[in-house]
Amino acid sequence: MNDLAEIISQNAELIQKQWIAGMAKSVQRSDLISKAELDEQSRAILDAIVAGIKTDGPTNVSGRGWDSARELLREISGSRARQGFSQIDVATFILSLKQPVFSGIRTAMAKNQDRLFETIWAATELLDRLALVTTEAYTTTREELITRQQQELLELSTPVVKLWDGILALPIIGTLDSARTQVVMENLLQSVVATNSKYAIIDITGVPTVDTLVAQHLLKTITAARLMGAECIISGIRPQIAQTIVHLGINLEDVVTKAKLSDAFALALQRSGRAVVRQTAPVNALNNVFVKRED
Amino acid sequence: MERIPVLRMGPLLLITIQVDMHDKLALQLQDDVTRHISDFGSTGVLIDISSLEIVDSFIGRMLANIAAMSRVLGADTVVVGMQPAVAITLVELGMSLPGVRTALSVEAGMELLMGAVAEPRHGADNERSQA
Questions:
Q1: Considering the entire predicted model, what is its pTM?
Q2: Can you give the residue range of the structural domain that contains A192?
Q3: What is d(CA A15, CA A50) in angstroms, rounded to the nearest whole number?
Q4: Residue A202 forms beta bridges with which residues?
Q5: B-side interface with A, Cβ within 8 Å?
Q6: What is the CATH number of the domain that holds A55?
Q7: Residue A195 near chain B (CB below 8 Å)
Q8: What would the pLDDT profile of A81-113 be if each residue is shown by its tens digit?
């Protein structure tokens, strides 16, 4: 079935021109990709397709002869996925090659109906398979992106902050799942040991919803901290969350809870035998400043 | 035979677990602790497990048992210096050791026990005057 390769390589210029024109009508995103880049990519793909048909035939797309064509398509689909093309855009890139190739075949084989049909069938099968390759590459790239973002989120969102000697705060942002709880728990316990802190405030202002599972994760963390000799205070419970907790029947009675982080901090200070006192000195301090200026 | 030493410090008993606990050792320790409490009339038991890196449900139960036995005999138990990994393991095993008091360091644990032995909340007042 080298007819197809011959037709494509002989009419390469025309096919490429029609291909790009066709894409311009349907899916070409001139905001995301330049004309020159598109020219280069389409030329490279046509060459790779011709080379593939010549070595391995048009149906055996997973064969070694198609390695370079598949690699090229994966690269292009991957970079397009990152650029923000939709899956339809990426698949149509290859599928819109059908029309120019078919018309090329028709011109070349107008006299022999049987061969015309055979060649067109081979071409359509080939292009469909290549389109599947692009779709797969697109999905893979997107999945990699999602995994990486999950990882980044995990690292990003679990800081342990020291508020005072012996008082730590752990602001949690986002939903708590098992994996995150593990990271949060380890971070907190390591910091408790490192800073020798007796009080840890877990602030859940940034946790959008609290269900039984989240509550269970929180209680686990608190129990582990207690086993090490640190006391946990939960703060940042929003009114809706307080209602949810009661409606779900979650038992937080053994845990000290406060509405605001400041309340929890005040409690931790008080329990560690400290107090915040308002100074009456600012007036004197101001006087000093004025005296100095007059000098 | 290998055994874990139980040190007597005034009204307190001090136990430092520095070797891998195996079952026989744990049972021996229970024997020793209960005998010491009743012999010396100790009012507090401090168990330092900061060197303990591996823990299983048996060790967890043993700690809870020692605490419960001491309470029966009239002594408070404080477990101090638990490693994060050990704490996580115990929680995952579902052993939250209710009734066992904990502290971060031997010093803090000692303060807790002495506070319980002498006047309650005495330490807190001292700290406030310093702050």
A1: 0.63
A2: 161-271
A3: 13
A4: A170, A234
A5: 79-84, 86-88, 90-92, 96-97, 102-105, 108-109, 123-128, 131
A6: 1.10.490
A7: no
A8: 888 888 888 888 888 888 888 888 888 888 888
